[in-house]
Amino acid sequence: MNAHANPKQRGAADAPFYLPGADEIEVFQAAAANDLPVLLKGPTGCGKTRFVAHMAARLGRPLYTVACHDDLSAADLIGRYLLKGGETVWTDGPLTRAVREGAICYLDEVVEARKDVTVVLHPLTDDRRILPIDRTGEELEAAPGFMLVASYNPGYQNILKTLKPSTRQRFLALEFDFPEPAREIEIVTRESGLDRDRVTALVRLAGKIRGLKGQDLEEGVSTRLVVYAAALIQQGMGVDRAIEAAMIEPLSDDAETKRGLRDLSAAIF
Ligand code: ADP
């Protein structure tokens, strides 16, 4: 189980750093105020998870994050009977805990999860706001504050793994993308502590790499990887080695593509 709970109540002041791109903070706040679920669409590593963590802290709500994978089932979210000292004891899953506590439940990469998961989400995403727990016979009404947030990456061109309209039309949706250069420079500088000149060059390289998307690369380099490269350089690693480890090797296994990426890098540094 990949659940990470952070039930500590925090305020806006110590919310993790998040630099907005548009009006996503306002939209999310309005969704929260109206008990509406939100879907975050966008490529990996562009700030979706950070945004949810930031918003949970701002709203002072606990956050349960579940990294979905192809083996994740409804029972993993809801809970199961576990054997404890010879007795079977019911143990809530992260979704059930969030429903009881009035927390935010964030299902990261929800399309990866098994099909039975979406069935569970339906009664939670309309105005009933209930979670039926078949195993215990309970029908839980979501506590005030409960909010469902899910993310998915429409870029993976996998028709088997898109959300069905009957599911996606239950969510408000916000589109995320890689930040434009000025914003990405700000983010990477803040996250890594590296000087602005070198961050600017890394962000320029990231832009060039993203230009290759669709030709040699399935997906452009994420802001997360640019932050990694900057952090390595800030720690004293040589620029070429850091770029190789953070912005070239993670993107491709193909020798020719990697050579092309190195050429792009050499033209900038
Ligand atoms: P995703 O959930 O979209 O895969 P993350 O939220 O984990 O991506 O973002 C990866 C990293 O990129 C974060 O840990 C953070 O360092 C950085 N990042 C990306 N966008 C932002 C942003 N708008 N504000 C602050 N940090 C950001």
Automatic annotation (TrEMBL):
All copies of domain ATPase dynein-related AAA, residue ranges: 37-171
ATP-binding keyword on record: yes
Q: Where in the numbering of this chain does the CbbQ/NirQ/NorQ C-terminal domain appear?
A: 184-267
Instruction: State the superkingdom.
Output: Bacteria
Keywords associated with the record: ATP-binding, Nucleotide-binding
Q: Which InterPro entries match?
A: ATPase_dyneun-rel_AAA, CbbQ/NirQ/NorQ/GpvN, CbbQ_C, P-loop_NTPase
Does Magnesium appear among the keywords? no
Annotated family:
Belongs to the CbbQ/NirQ/NorQ/GpvN family.
Its protein name is: CbbQ/NirQ/NorQ/GpvN family protein
Which organism does this sequence originate in? Paracoccus mangrovi
